[in-house]
Design goal:
EC number: 1.5.1.2
Catalytic activity: L-proline + NAD(+) = (S)-1-pyrroline-5-carboxylate + NADH + 2 H(+); L-proline + NADP(+) = (S)-1-pyrroline-5-carboxylate + NADPH + 2 H(+)
Structural class: alpha/beta
CATH class of the largest domain: Alpha Beta
Number of strands: 8
Radius of gyration: 21 Å
GO molecular function: pyrroline-5-carboxylate reductase activity
Low-confidence stretches: none
Shape: elongated
Largest sheet: 8 strands, mixed
Strand order of the largest sheet: 3-2-1-4-5-6-7-8
Number of domains: 2
Number of helices: 12
Distance between the termini: 36 Å
CATH topology of the largest domain: Rossmann fold
CATH superfamily of the largest domain: NAD(P)-binding Rossmann-like Domain
Order of helices and strands: EHEHEHEHEHEEHEHHHHHH
Strand content: 5-15%
Organism: Gonium pectorale
Family: Belongs to the pyrroline-5-carboxylate reductase family.
Mean pLDDT: 94
Amino acid sequence: MATSSTAPLDKRIGFLGSGQMAEALARGLIKRGLVTADRIACNDPNPARKELFKSFGAVPYESNADVARNADVLFVAVKPQHVASVLAEVRPVLGEGHTVVSIAAGITVDKLVEAAGPEAHVVRVMPNTPCLVGETAAAMCLGGKANPEDESLVRTIFEAVGKIYTVDEKLLAAVTGLSGSGPAYVFMMIEALADGGVKAGLPRDIAQALAAQTVLGSAKMVIETGNHPGALKDMVTSPAGTTIAGVHELEKAGVRAAFMSAVVAATDRANQLSKA
């Protein structure tokens, strides 16, 4: 992710809920120079979270309605079960100039529009936890009166902390199964690689560092070269060498199918939760 400053947004940002994902977004926007800290408003039931936002220059408010009055882009960053009540609080003060961005898992566009009102400009976003280190893989869909300007605005915001793609809402469950849940799969892979290194004789700290850096570097090669992962794999697997011996063991264990099944299972569960 680029960390250089960019042209500032002529928008005020509000957070309804000031948890870790909200904090990551706020810090990313400030770091990239998209907004100054004093143009970020927030509220949270936990006073400690509001104090944390205040510590880096954001402005905490006592009510969600006050946040909405002092923001143009309003992030709904509360637990899914609280989304409807939070939007009901701010609905009377929402206007044509507001873009409402929900990062609550499983809350559909229809539910967001029902709570925010039929005139609301609603954008539903599925980010993931690498947002915390400025490398989110996110997707969005539009609802209500949201328009291309809202889409462009949300894209600019999330590109401060990673990548974002626009998809049909019916595909957000698949996004959840892949990039939403995917970090857990990758963490398990890093842990397993490190365990293998320890079994082969490496000290734990070195094994873990090598495993994590290997995943980071490999992902960067896929992104920056644009080559198919299979082609990059073939570059490493020389005839009768060490890598093909390891790849054979992975194939025997069904690792490829296991990852595919994990994505599909998480997608199915996301679909179930969105219909609840």
